[in-house]
């Protein structure tokens, strides 16, 4: 009896059905193999910029924002950080951004990019910035006319120092991305938020 069940699974009819399903919908295998990497941040800084996202103003912690932010989740549909498409410019790296608010609301699947970093003294990255493509979150942050929003996100273990800087209104970055800083950030994300 046991063998008749397995025999029926291997019958020409069953195999033909599987092949037909794969031909009609090749995404079945791709969907099963697609892995997502994600990183969750509960400490978030919001600020605005005009030309360079790493030179911002009017910084506020997400928890103190008019519409308090509970957490931000960054995602890439990859097996590891850094395999995605280029973002808005040269060295940026495209990500999807989900913003969850203390009031229970959320903005999900917002297209954005990893755009800049703040280097630590002695090496490494303290925090980094994301910018948004066309759609921006409904976070009620009061933007100055002609400015855009950037979110600053501290790496794990850097939250206390980042909070002090954000409370002082100073969440500027060290530099926009170049080949070295993007590689450092990708390495840090892969270390801290393993797939």
Structural class: alpha+beta
> Helix tally?
5
Helix content: 25-40%
Q: Give the N-to-C terminal Cα separation.
A: 42 Å
Main sheet summary: 9 strands, antiparallel
Query: Cα-atom Rg, whole angstroms?
Result: 21 Å
SS elements, strand count: 9
Q: Which residue ranges are poorly predicted, with pLDDT under 50 across at least 5 consecutive positions?
A: 14-33
Round the mean pLDDT to the nearest integer and report it. Answer: 83
For this entry, give a set of tags.
single chain; about 200 residues; alpha+beta; 9-stranded antiparallel sheet; about 25% helix; about 30% strand; globular
Description:
This protein has 195 residues and is of the alpha+beta class. 26% of the residues lie in helices and 32% in strands. It has five helices and nine strands. The protein has helices at 2-9, 12-24, 27-33, 159-167, 179-192; strands spanning 37-41, 45-49, 57-61, 69-76, 93-101, 106-119, 125-132, 148-154, 175-176. Strands 1, 2, 3, 4, 5, 6, 7, 8 and 9 form a nine-stranded antiparallel β-sheet that branches. The model is unreliable at 14-33 (pLDDT under 50).
Question: How do the helices and strands line up, and which of them pair or pack?
Answer:
Blueprint: H1 2-9, H2 12-24, H3 27-33, E1 37-41, E2 45-49, E3 57-61, E4 69-76, E5 93-101, E6 106-119, E7 125-132, E8 148-154, H4 159-167, E9 175-176, H5 179-192
Antiparallel strand pairs: 1-4, 2-3, 2-8, 4-5, 5-6, 6-7, 6-9, 7-8
Care to give the gist of this entry?
This protein is an alpha+beta fold.
